[in-house]
Amino acid sequence: MSGPSTVTEPIGYPVTDTIEIIDPATGGAVGTIPVTDIAEVDQRIAVARRAQSQWACTPAAERAAALRTGAGRLRARADEIAALAESETGRPRAEGAEGIAAGAATLEQYAELGPVHRGRSLQGDIGATDLMVWEPRGVVVALTPWNDPVAVSCGLLGAALVTGNTVLYKPSERAPHTGALLGELLADVLPDAVLQTVQGDGAVGAALAAHHDIDLIAHVGSTAAGRSIARSAAATGAHVLLENGGNDAFVVDADVDPEWAAEQAALGAFANSGQICVAVERIFVHEAIAEPFLAALTGAARSWTPAPLVDRRHREQVHAQVREAVADGARASTGGTVPDGPGAHYPATVLTGCTPAMRVMREETFGPVAPVRVVPTFDQGLAEAARDDYGLAATVLTSSMANAQTAWRRLPVGTVKINAVFGGTPGGAAHPRGASGSGYGYGPELLDEMTRTKVVHLQPPPR
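The structure corresponding to this sequence follows.
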């Protein structure tokens, strides 16, 4: 869902006629896919604009039925899509299948919520009627990531489509085949031009985001790309939804089992090789249990077999942070070296002796790296965790109800998880803070973002 899972980096991607994908596990070729010519962007948006008025007039129940059909087609091709995503991004097939199941469930969720998304009446003059009604925003651009390409895309696409918007969907250039298949499966159950898939790198994403005739831009990716999109939207007036980088803290109190805490930290830092929006990026552990915690975390890292990183370019970015931290005084208790052989593999790495000034503590790493800082008190760990430019999520492990209450109130992030690094009820929605973005990206509230409110006052003329 975020961070270097970017699809629209403003710089750094060469513009070519095709995108070539290399399998990050083997180094072999996956295939190539054509890039949408930037000159086509005007035409694609004009077609979407013409289709939008009729789609908005389609009964909400019919729009919902299309999403249900799309969810069924997604489930029917789940094995194929998971295999394709694994070959493009390295995400293990079983984990990818879970993301596809979540994507199908999200489409069905919005199929249920869309038809009952409603405004309200207002009390005014007894001889008149006042209403607040929702209307679709119009034409939506959805720019989605590679690290969970189906689940994230289904959320944005489902909410936009069920509320009567037309969509230009640009999947990540690191997962273009997966995006192409998802776009095809959904477009086949929709009227022409209601959903169009656009392929390309940052230049194509920038052209979409800067277009004057776009009503909403929804982006899940890096903070740098999100800020570029926000600047474009400030000039065009488009509404913006951004879920961008995260530097999620993991705060461990003195009163928890250190081995259990290490298991939670390892899961949060190393699952999908750390390429998860809400992965653990910074660990603050109370000095009272630091020694057994570090021993258990190092052991867990040594036994962990990470999936490859998405490509070698990203591996170099991850390793650069580790290399800088070690040069500045941190120590790798395990990992921290680039392995020989093909692909983009990187070992699960534990860094001890980390300080707040290190880049590995200040910036999102988005790799299987667990930087640890030992703190003398829970309050200091909480205070250091709160001093950060990002504001996506955080995890706190504590047996103290008082400390749990203090933690969720003081941490300036959109989601705080107490005693569980992952999990939560489906449909939860939060606002990311600071460099992590803005706006609801999930849940029923996403339907509000995809629509705008109109007040209608109905009054009869004088007799």
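The two ends are 59 Å apart (CA to CA).
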